[in-house]
Amino acid sequence: MLALLKSSSVRFVLVLAAGVSLVQAKDSVYSKSTIVVYNKNFPGSAEIAAHYISQRGISKGNRVALDCSSNEVISRAEFRASIERPLRKLFTEKEWWTVQNNAGRPKVVENKMRVLVLIHGMPLKIKDTSPEPRPTNAAKMQTDAASVDSELALLGQFNERLPGWLPNPYFRQEKSFGDAGLSNLMLVGRVDGPKVVDCRRMINDASEIERTGLWGFAYVDLAKKTNGGYKQGEDWLNNVVTQCERDGIPTIVDANNSSFPSHYPMDEAALYFGWYARNANGPFEDPNFKLKKGAIAAHIHSFSALTLRSETNEWTGPLVHHGAAGTLGNVYEPFLTGTTHLDVFLQRLLEGYTLAEAAYMATPYLSWMSVVVGDPLYRPYDGFRTYEPQFYRNDEALHYKTYHVATKLWDANPPEYQRKLEAATSNHKTGFYHEAQAGRLRTAGSRNGAIGLLRKAKDKYLRAEDQFRVDLQIADMERLRNNKPRAKEVLRAMEASAEYKALPRYKSVKALLNQLDPPGPAGS
């Protein structure tokens, strides 16, 4: 394996030096087995469907118009009458699947279709048919509510809906969906968001970025929720940090009870994972903030996808509005144990699986609350671990690529790893590699070492924006060392900096100072 990586690294350098432009063909693995479903009653739905099949090379015969409600929430009866039954009828008429009767019960034994894409305007969720209050968690888990998407994944099972969730047979599998042999299951994703323009942008971004790879920082927002059942979610996010560091993705972590503050400089954010705020906050409160093109982002909350048609409410819609090409959410309370495991989700993405495959591999239950938003065929990291040439062409995102390859090649040899990154720092004249390594030291518990590297990074950086971002991390490291006075001293110095005052991100300093010393009531 090491020899393969070494030969691949040589190819990586040669491709960069030659400036070769190698363009990968559009993903055709699932194009012939994908159904695109839109709502003929919703403005823009047909337009987005047409754009999607054009971008993905999907047959026009696989585009389906349904006559259904334009509301996001529908009843169980509406779901069956306007979505479930028409689709089953169409699958049979077009011979997309083969159904056999077993003791009078239909069973799908072959399905030519693997992926079902719901387009902006399709209903999002099915409300509970039982109006009575459910006082206990056990009773609440017997709800008849679900996401439309999660129910349609089981379209081929012909089951009468029972309250509660059903185990997902694709959960934690390590093979492509086409090889899993699950003929009565489909992967369901949706190209959806607050506006038509958001949906078109998601389609275009996925098509572009999977040819060059998704390069940038990962931002992980912990919450110190370690009591009882909450520990599971915090563990997922800590595992995400570890995974990013092993794969050479520079990672910035907020390990405080509070979230990343307003106006935090979430620069070059290719990945964002966090919890546990009700509505999008921090940098996502800024209407001008955008994630990096092609970004994958998710925030754990029980009602993160309560609606997808808002730019500010909950999380999933706002993440799309702020540039995410792929995200996840829950339409109703899923309970943490029924939520998509973000660490497994990221791991499968990094292994090159599609957005939909990664999400379903990480989701333990179906007929439940989850939704996958974005082009379900999007592969942001296809070639990331196999070092395919098109993934490393030209000098695009050179620092990220160099750091990734160096980490994979020499991480087990710390002296050599350090020597390579010091050489890269000198050659590329940047503080990037010191900043990236500081995150690794932070996670390893060496906060003094992390601060030392961050100071080196600041000295190497030339742009005030980069120096500002590093100073914020130094202040955060001091907080982690329980040195609140020193953290405030760093922030006060930033607040007094004339150079920093000219930056829009300057407002984050006051937000952080308010976290350290919350202002008292007015008039106190």
Account of the protein in words:
By secondary structure, the protein is α/β, with parallel strands linked by helices. The model is unreliable at 1-27 (pLDDT under 50). The protein folds into 2 domains: 31-374, no CATH class; 413-516, Serine Threonine Protein Phosphatase 5, Tetratricopeptide repeat (Alpha Horseshoe), CATH 1.25.40. It contains 18 helices and 17 strands. The longest helix has 18 residues, at 76-93. α7 links the parallel β11 (217-221) and β12 (251-254). α16 (484-496) packs antiparallel against α18 (507-516). The strands form 5 sheets. The protein has a 6-stranded mixed beta sheet with strand order 12-11-13-14-15-17. A 4-stranded parallel beta sheet has the order 2-1-6-10, with helices on both faces. Strands 3-7-8 form a 3-stranded mixed beta sheet. It is globular and about 70 Å long.
Overall geometry: globular
**Secondary-structure content class:** alpha/beta
Our count of domains comes out at 2
By DSSP (H or I, 4+ residues per run), the number of helices equals 18
Task: Summarize this structure briefly.
The protein has 524 residues and is an alpha/beta fold. 40% of the residues lie in helices and 14% in strands.
Features:
524 residues, Serine Threonine Protein Phosphatase 5, Tetratricopeptide repeat, 6-stranded mixed beta sheet, 4-stranded parallel beta sheet, 40% helix, disordered N terminus
SSE blueprint and pairings:
Blueprint: H1 2-18, E1 34-39, H2 45-56, E2 63-66, E3 73-74, H3 76-93, E4 97-102, E5 105-111, E6 115-119, E7 125-126, H4 137-140, E8 146-147, H5 148-152, E9 166-167, E10 187-191, H6 196-212, E11 217-221, H7 231-246, E12 251-254, E13 269-275, E14 296-300, H8 316-321, E15 326-330, H9 342-350, H10 355-361, E16 365-366, E17 370-374, H11 398-410, H12 414-428, H13 432-444, H14 447-460, H15 464-480, H16 484-496, H17 498-501, H18 507-516
Parallel strand pairs: 1-2, 1-6, 3-7, 6-10, 11-12, 11-13, 13-14, 14-15
Antiparallel strand pairs: 4-5, 7-8, 9-16, 15-17
